[in-house]
């Protein structure tokens, strides 16, 4: 069981760099990179909400459950 983070896919769809997303969301590039690579153990709903707002997507576009 695993949660797959598809943040890189959504960023590519919107043609947005890690630096640009980091600035617009207001979190460090290292924290965003950890999230993007699946190394993060948690994410705040407020951060997820802001990422979705900036990328104009739904949480399910970024997070996926695989059994």
Rg on CA atoms, Å: 11 Å
Average pLDDT figure: 94
User: How many DSSP-defined strands?
Assistant: 2
Distance between the termini: 4 Å
Low-pLDDT stretches: none
**Superfamily (CATH H level) name:** lambda repressor-like DNA-binding domains
CATH topology title: 434 Repressor (Amino-terminal Domain)
**What is the topology, as strand order, of the major beta sheet?**
1-2
Helix-strand makeup class: mainly alpha
What is the CATH top level name?
Answer: Mainly Alpha
Bin the helical content.
55-70%
- The shape is globular
Largest sheet, in brief, is: 2 strands, antiparallel
Order of helices and strands: EHHHHHE
Which CATH architecture is right?
Answer: Orthogonal Bundle
Q: So how many helices?
A: 5
Tell me the fraction of residues in β-strands, as a range: 5-15%
Number of domains: 1
Topology:
Elements: E1 2-5, H1 7-13, H2 18-25, H3 29-36, H4 45-55, H5 59-62, E2 63-66
Structure, explained:
By secondary structure, this protein is mainly alpha-helical. It has a single domain (2-66), classed as 434 Repressor (Amino-terminal Domain) (Orthogonal Bundle). It is built from 5 helices and 2 strands. It has helices at residues 7-13, 18-25, 29-36, 45-55, 59-62, and strands spanning 2-5, 63-66. The protein has a two-stranded antiparallel ribbon with strand order 1-2. The chain is globular. 15% of the residues are buried. The mean pLDDT is 94.
